[in-house]
């Protein structure tokens, strides 16, 4: 099937270009009778909203007001498709005229042109990070289901521009713009972002996502493994170049006796598994990390080619972030929410005893 | 959908347990009129076959003869489903009787029990690495299509037990049992495996896969991105705990000006992108790495619990590898083949001009 | 997967309730570089628009203006999702207050309540015929692709209220409100509708769809047969209770020597097959018929029950058609268009040589 | 996706050609812990087995022994894929040599050639009715799940060669080879078949399927409607040319007041709906009918063409039925079973309270 739909039973289809009239998502398969309001979705959107200021952020300021156009009746979901719409209000498309015929390095311009023979060059079109706003909105709806099951998904920054978080204070995550659980590291990360921006450059980082309260038994062997789908989901975010679960790449250097988490009557000792064994959740906390590349749109001059294949020098103007992290943390959270909501329903659809309050009738 | 099917248009469904009567795969969507014989599939299977000796390998020796039961007529595919069957001949199930009520640490025993309330404990049942033989067989069929397009997929070991390959000699890959492109490193890797085995332990490693000849334009935004599907495909291999594309986790520490691959009239300079931009192949070589955990079945005593939740000490007997690498390299290759064959057909199905000799009629 | 998506490669997801803010469709998989404007979609919508007058029609008059929110750039499709939106402007929801707790016979009120435990009772909610406007809009986009291949899909009325068309004048179809190819029968059908309406009743009918220019080779054995998918597509229209292909139910009374269409060097003699053999198009014209039940909303008093299971007498007020035919003919046409566009892409995706002008690059 | 897989959550993939080594099915998504033995599947297969004698039947006699190769452990399903295999033992392929270059009228020979450019001509290859044995086997597995929910699916012949059943004695169905519930009609049907066979001809008929015990709430609006999927499922049987639900084509001639089934506190009065309203089961009995065309392989000479497009006269030899009914009745039953098992799981996967004994854990 074409690639704009995610999930099997909790299915999300996103649509829209950065500088088209609007973007949106259609959610099909959300169970009925769950409480849902625009305010709940809006709160999630506000977390990834640009325009909160700070050196890592674009100057483009959009209210990103979400509208629910279907699937909700008198404050509850009805089991029919939920259509979410966000108008593109502040799109200065003319700023992109210079890019109509030039391929920005590190961007999808050249591959969209190769694939489709046509592309909406304005703001990256469909490949813009703006598309992820629709994912975040859909993730908020998924969380309404996860709430019923007591599943909580937390995303935060563990590295940025070479600066690593060394402490983990969950309270701190929401206190800084970079979603860093280590306030001291957050300050150094901000300095690193400011430095990169001043140099006309950008920096990457690492996002970690944890999911607590996940029941054992989610995930479908052998190709629908929970870790496989989480990896695919996070790698479907444009800037992500690597994904790891639990011990991740460190596991490659461990011995079996180091890596195996002993099982005790009280549960697992350690969590090198990242909460997943043989692709199925083991009841422990899920731990996933995503490597985020530096934003490719930089002010420094770059060598590239135009539509006619001629060499040109490019200086990307417009409004761009110096780090994708402040936007990508909520997107990583959203993708994990979508994976889990889908697997909750898939587990039920295989006959597993996964229930939520108010679900039975 | 349930999890035993991979791909959208080149669809592979695998089935079978380690100690059931047989394992197999059904391929639906393979284009017609491609040459296909059992010998071609057998050659791929022989690469991952245990019993070639060496300290990393299990003593279980199976010929793994594949039979093609359908979909081929007079040496050519017919467009109908291709059923591949491999009998399980040498399965000493009684060796696993001790594991009927005990959960092996690091294995799926406990999660299968949690998910299904029943499991075939013999040899890991469905979670056994043996299932991947069916993937390798299917991958060989995929390669027949890729051959027509000039796409070559190479997989090899870049790290094992902490030893890293420092040279890349493609000729060397097939000359050693570990598929290592650096003969000197291969020797040290073998020593590391022997050391781990002697200690009743096991080691992990890193597998790299390259695909050359991939046309630009494969991959579907936004959820069917080529890198997203490659990541999901490799993470669907039981022992894989991390996946990265191109610069991968190193990208998180780079600046945009370092990471962006300049575009010149002659092509890209550098390949930090790993051959993929915005989820779509850019015509360059694909480069993907997978982190493989150490095999969890080790001879050393381990703490675990039984079906009744009681603490027990486990010493895994039976025939086990000290490293999964010799088996997993061909599986990684197979999964990349499957992803590419699927995306070749999906690109055609979107109207892209991707053709192969003898395809048109 | 949930049920609001149709098609594999040309995928349409519809959303929206009769009296919610809007309805719409998202099309994923439409090939790029096809010409597409709102005017083309609007023209198809205008065919099924209520408010054209005549005794079979509801008095509800909506302009049904479609907006294209994504997937089109400078008048051509881009290969990204096409979002179609139609606002619900004229929805007098209060007219339905009496139905909040009463199940209308012949409607989905009682089954939606049983399935979801909640329903938007206003105008039938999601089960309203209004949802089919989104299908017609999507069908118009599908036709843009079919146009490139020279495929034409015609739908018309062959029976209504017991009156059968006896002549077939393709020119006449658009000249009467009932899409009847026999002008004389059309007049008697109108009289039959007026009679039913005067009696507070409604009438059913039979719609026939023909598709010309369909290349041989569309349809996928064994479960994706072209006739199987056409049948499923037409039966997915609320009022349809039967579907037949070619000779259809008459075939059950024929002998093999009568039913088999002889094959000659010039083509088939006769078309009892309806253009499909073994689920695959044979190059002949496709012929499909759908039996449409009488509209269940009638003015006559009916016995039913309320939410508490108590017997009540119901007289349906509001604005209702006396026959669904004028609305359903364009919907049948749209569904056949969607099936064919999907199968054109699926055939390409299997490697078949199906091309259209401007497709190759 | 390619067409050899049926269902969303209870997924069946069939494979195999009439004269290849074997045919089979892989079932993915069958819930765990259900009792399953080869004997249960064999019993269903024996119902459609040729070789029971009688004039409607082919002389080809195959034991059709099914083997379960995976997914069952100690007599219970494990939740992993169930692989069913049936060897083709009695295939006299040389009898088909004459058909290598000739297209039989009414068969898929010409369309397979058009689609694939290659075909296994022996016995119809993939288009053979033999493929349906795999469906019947899979249907037997589906019934094991339906048994837990008290759902019973009955299929029988209501018309054959113009002879209609006028009585309905469920006891009689299994007493005659034609599955006719009217013993007197069964005798006349047999006479009609004998007459057709003597004339070197064949006859069609109508099969009816009823499903009792179906809970209200199965079926997914709008494209996954229960009636839509039943219609598609039955039309996916090669010989079926029409499908109707409840009143079916008669509904087209009824008024709304005649067609609507009144709702009373005790349930529905009448069942013109066939147990389905707005695509969702209403708790009443499902009633579906399929029109079966006469078998196209007849002894009479027929006009056709060969691979080079030259006119030839064909007399089909070999072993052929004079009516497809004795084989198709069990296939219709199987397809309805597959649809219902799938929708039971899909309803659970949407959060509906559909449970079966032993399901919860």
UniProtKB/TrEMBL annotation, chains A, B, C, D:
Cofactor annotation: FMNH2
Name this protein carries in UniProt: Chorismate synthase
Function (record text): This reaction introduces a second double bond into the aromatic ring system.
Keyword flag Amino-acid biosynthesis: yes
Note on cofactor: Reduced FMN (FMNH(2)).
Keyword hit for rRNA-binding: no
Alphabetic keyword roster: Amino-acid biosynthesis, Aromatic amino acid biosynthesis, FAD, Flavoprotein, FMN, Lyase, NADP
GO molecular-function terms, A-Z: chorismate synthase activity; FMN binding
Pathway linked to the protein: Metabolic intermediate biosynthesis; chorismate biosynthesis; chorismate from D-erythrose 4-phosphate and phosphoenolpyruvate: step 7/7
Lineage: superkingdom: Bacteria
The protein's assembly and partners: Homotetramer.
Annotated TM spans: none
Main enzyme class: lyase
Residue numbers binding NADP(+): 48
Organism: Dissulfurirhabdus thermomarina
InterPro entries, alphabetized: Chorismate_synth, Chorismate_synth_AroC_sf, Chorismate_synthase_CS
Record GO biological process: amino acid biosynthetic process; aromatic amino acid family biosynthetic process; chorismate biosynthetic process
Pfam families cross-referenced by the UniProt entry: Chorismate_synt (PF01264)
Family, as annotated: Belongs to the chorismate synthase family.
GO cellular component terms given for this protein: cytosol
Positions annotated to bind FMN: 126-128, 278, 293-297, 319
EC number, UniProt record: 4.2.3.5
Reaction(s) this enzyme catalyzes, per UniProt: 5-O-(1-carboxyvinyl)-3-phosphoshikimate = chorismate + phosphate
């Amino acid at each position: 099937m074409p690639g704009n739909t995610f999930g099997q039973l909790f299915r999300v289809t996103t649509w829209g270009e950065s500088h088209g009239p609007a973007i949106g998502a259609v959610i099909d398969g959300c169970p009925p009778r769950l409480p849902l309001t625009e305010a709940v979705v809006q709160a999630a959107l506000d977390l990834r909203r640009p325009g909160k200021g700070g050196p890592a952020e674009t100057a483009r300021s959009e209210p990103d007001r979400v509208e629910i156009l279907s699937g909700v009746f008198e404050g509850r979901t009805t089991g029919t498709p939920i259509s979410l719409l966000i108008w593109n209000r502040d799109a200065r498309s003319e700023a992109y005229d210079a890019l109509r015929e030039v391929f920005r390095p590190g961007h999808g311009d050249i591959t969209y042109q190769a694939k489709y023979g046509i592309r909406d060059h304005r703001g990256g079109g469909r490949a813009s990070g703006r598309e992820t706003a629709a994912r975040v909105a859909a993730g908020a709806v998924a969380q309404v289901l996860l709430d019923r099951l007591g599943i909580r998904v937390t995303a935060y920054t563990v590295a940025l521009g070479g600066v690593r978080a060394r402490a983990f204070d969950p309270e701190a995550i929401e206190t800084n713009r970079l979603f860093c659980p280590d306030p001291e590291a957050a300050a150094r990360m901000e300095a690193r972002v400011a430095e990169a921006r001043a140099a006309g450059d950008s920096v990457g980082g690492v996002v970690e996502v944890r999911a607590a309260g996940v029941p054992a038994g989610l995930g479908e062997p052998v190709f629908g493994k929970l870790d496989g789908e989480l990896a695919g989901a996070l790698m479907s975010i444009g800037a992500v170049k690597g994904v790891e679960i639990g011990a991740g790449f460190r596991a490659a250097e461990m011995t079996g006796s180091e890596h195996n988490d002993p099982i005790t009557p009280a549960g697992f000792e350690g969590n090198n598994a990242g909460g997943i064994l043989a692709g199925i959740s083991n009841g422990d906390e899920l731990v996933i990390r995503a490597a985020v590349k530096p934003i490719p749109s930089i002010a420094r001059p770059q060598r590239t080619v135009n539509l006619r294949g001629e060499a040109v020098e490019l200086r990307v103007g417009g409004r761009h972030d110096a780090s994708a992290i402040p936007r990508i943390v909520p997107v990583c959270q959203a993708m994990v929410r979508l994976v889990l909501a889908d697997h909750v329903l898939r587990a039920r659809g295989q006959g597993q005893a996964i229930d939520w309050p108010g679900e039975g009738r």
